[in-house]
Amino acid sequence: MDSLDRSALGIRIIAALELQGRHVVPLDDRLLDQRNHLLRMARLGADAIAVSRGLGVAGHLAQLIEAIEKAVADEAHERSVCGLDEACRALLARLGRRSCSFCTRSTGSQPLCADLGEWASPDPPGVCIDELVSLLFSMREIARALYARHTPRANDIVVSYSLQGVSQGAERGFIPEFHLNGSTRVDADRTTIGIDLENEALDLPTLFQLAYVCAHELICHAFQSILGPERQNVGPTCSWSEGWMDTVAWLLLQRWVNTGDQGLPQWMTAVPDRALDDCRRLHERRYEGRQGPAMPPHQLMRRVQARDACRRLLRHWSAPDNKRTLKGLRKLVQFSVTLNAASLSRKDRNALIVQLSTGLLAGTPKLLQRTVRACEDFLAHGNPLRFLEELAAGAELIYPRPMV
What we know:
By secondary structure, this protein is mostly helical. Helix content is 61%, strand content 6%.
């Protein structure tokens, strides 16, 4: 993503946060139309910058600011009643600031957002994407600290982002009705998380949902198998990653947003219910049949079973009342993160989630008890292969193989 694309994205982010994120109560259709008109103006200004190859951003920004100032000057009294006038002034102030806090704090030749492929600041400085960068960096450090509590190896893994704007999400396999997607590539000591954003459709719900996408990629994939000799990329058919670990990521994100004590941006933690509602829509869609690329029903069913098994273990560890919910979540996170970081082959992970799903969901009460006990024992010994053997032995006792 070059400086022009970054400036265009920065305008869209600022417009979404100021015009959609502030507490604006449209008193009538006219005021709502005014807000939508300002959003369209910002997006048109972003489009003008995005196509201005070789022309820079200063002239287009000046034209956009002038146009918004003119709109702000009209009927300001009515807008001030619902907070729209305040949002407009904040929007203008942000557009005029140009360079972001990450660029101005940089002490070297590269800005701090070089991790996103930004090797030089625009000249003159454009509209930066500091809110987005702040979210990505915060999520990365939260996830690293979480894994490092259970294995110091997490501190050795370099996690970087690759941010790309796309014009048509459907062509990139986006889930219908959503405007972003994530992917992860792993090597021995490096993880690269790809974030694709549908530029023209970027809005506040998409910014909220970016937190969920980051949580998924970081908790499910970024540190997977870091204790093994060879790390492998996994696909959407891995029900351990896409069902069990995704559920853990969603549970953690809810806690991070609700507590507001993990360093996430204020624009998200200030409205936790609104932010999590938008994230929940994307999370739940992953377990429905309306995926982007078609997913065979049996694979989707395994993903759903993995999610339900994870929830079942959490309920068991959180019983008999809600006072133990946090304790149960901590045990589930320790259990899941330790297994996810362990040296397990793809075949072993498939066997693991089949055994867990069977023992926690489809077995007899006796098998459920043995499965939970095996999970408890794993928290003590931490040996994933021994854990697999204990799960299989428990199933054998309940469902013995027929003699030949």
